[in-house]
Description:
2 copies of one chain form a homodimer. Chain A is of the alpha/beta class.
Amino acid sequence: MRRVAVIGTGHSKFMFNSPKTSVEMLSEVAMDAINEANVKPKDIQAVYVGNVLGDFEEGQGMVQSFFANDIGCFNVPATRFEGACASGSMAVRDAFMWVASGFYDIVLVGGVERATSMSVPLATRTFAMFGDSRYEYPAGFTFPAVFALLAHLYASRYSIPLQRLKEQMAAVTVQSHEYAVKNPNAQFKKAISKEDVLKSFVVSSPIQLQDACPFTDGAAAVVLASEEVAKKLAKKPVYFAGVGQSSSGKLSSQYKYLPRIRAREIASRQAFDMAGLTPKDMDLCELHDCFSIAAMIAAEGLGFFDYGTSGEAWEKGETRLGGKIPINISGGLKAKGHPIGATGVSQVYEVTRQLRGEMVEQGRQVEGARYGIIDTLGGDGVLLSLILSAV
Amino acid sequence: MRRVAVIGTGHSKFMFNSPKTSVEMLSEVAMDAINEANVKPKDIQAVYVGNVLGDFEEGQGMVQSFFANDIGCFNVPATRFEGACASGSMAVRDAFMWVASGFYDIVLVGGVERATSMSVPLATRTFAMFGDSRYEYPAGFTFPAVFALLAHLYASRYSIPLQRLKEQMAAVTVQSHEYAVKNPNAQFKKAISKEDVLKSFVVSSPIQLQDACPFTDGAAAVVLASEEVAKKLAKKPVYFAGVGQSSSGKLSSQYKYLPRIRAREIASRQAFDMAGLTPKDMDLCELHDCFSIAAMIAAEGLGFFDYGTSGEAWEKGETRLGGKIPINISGGLKAKGHPIGATGVSQVYEVTRQLRGEMVEQGRQVEGARYGIIDTLGGDGVLLSLILSAV
């Protein structure tokens, strides 16, 4: 297995109601990534794309082959991946393997979603298709309800009074918005207070509006290359140190592991073992905060905090710049935005740029960052872990 | 790169209106493949699934993780691929790489679709999302219209009178139905005559109903393993000799190559080069006859017949058992059926069973078959070529 590097990155502004189609959004970020990588579209040997609702939302399936052709990547293999919110990371991990195996030297990975043409209630119902549609969705399990359930189980298991948990969850949101203000690509470039969170309307108790990430339109892309190519083309190649993927199936089949989400512990273990690293080695983390409780659970599952203590960690600033483990310094899904199929690729973009030391101007650089981990959760329990390294 | 073998196969009956969900269909064929491979669900290290309309048709996205969990493949990486009708073959090619690279030893590939709950007119419009949705679908390009266009271009380029072309297309359909009668999994186990084809109603001139494959519910699965594992477990492992994938983008961008479909020529060239084989070495072929004109174009693109002559080849019986190159001895998409995301995996099932010599009882064995090629076309120009070998 060869080492694989990120040598180019592209990222759209995340927003409501983009005037562009998915093919157009993807084309733009892909060209940015290709240009940054100092290659041409004809050098791209294969294309990997995360996209979830293209057919449902926009009436366009198979976006990957249309956009690839439009930007001049003619006749390449172009593959679409769907693992709900983890689709983008899934595409990245797969592309990694095609380069690591020696089959390709230079490939493009993109992620794109248009998710805001529908009203939020309809989008919420639509997106519940990525939970179990036979037994759970009919019982009311849209994703806000799933994470409300997890919040109750979490509070109960760790004996945290619900009002206290709400305050902890608010601390997660407040931090995410604070950093999103510094991120020019973020959907919500606006700080909010703990009080703003706690007075927002209840979506599915105890989850309130400001505990939940938005629906978002957006795209991101990265160019991956073999180490040999990367050393020729990139000033600061960022390498994959480890990758992991796991899945769980329906909630009712994993009740013993709720709310820890076992698939995350397995996927991240794979990535850490492959990298020969531990959570202590990580300098930053972009994790899947589709809800603030999801962020807390993720930080524990990844090994950064003891179970039941991550809310306190956020409150104490351990997840901030300069803290024990800076988490979601991009603003996270909550405030940067969550264009479903693009999210994993956006996380890779963020960690790559941090590991290159390019966030100084934005005032959100993790000083001297060498290792970063990406965590993406898709639907009922698809988990991706990707560890990137500057060394 | 290691050699990779098919060591287990499973296939549902193809039909209208299956009473089963996609997760259930997939679970059943996967267990058949696992049992035939002499492994257990816990031995499966990763799962790859082709599926297109799960969310649209059934309200179930991400079928791969739910079915994997249901059959006891707990916490494995489970990935869904979408490349329209080529989704299943795309999943197979990707799974092939994960084993060939040495990352996994035993993986499961499945394909599944429910496509018949919608009326055929609605399904036709729905499926047009896998063409270009911006310029072509609004101009009336559902897939019957796309292939009607190709038929006219084909007739014109090769100076074949349209009535003569219709007779050639009918010959393709008649042969497919004849072999489907012998295939217990086929959707249409009924022979039809040339006259039946020519008197069927016109869908999009010159394409008539009997020139078009049906929508179908169904599933198929195969277990892939490294050569080392295959030699221990399988009596007759069938090996991958070559794989290829290419794509084109929207029709208007490839007008020079219509109706040859350039992506097919590229994908099959990749597969032949990788295998060190030529079209002459092939003993059988399962190709993408979504329409009878599609079959004719495919047979030429794969190198079996000169351009403009494959209709005559079908009429002369060169595509039959004992002919120059037996094509779609399964009944093909036209008569075996076309459950979109399952089709590529079903083709691998067919060729594997032929290369093992297991079609004798059904009266449709290609005698002494050593090499077989699979051709799958997805939407506007995703092409997969897979070459399997008994030696």
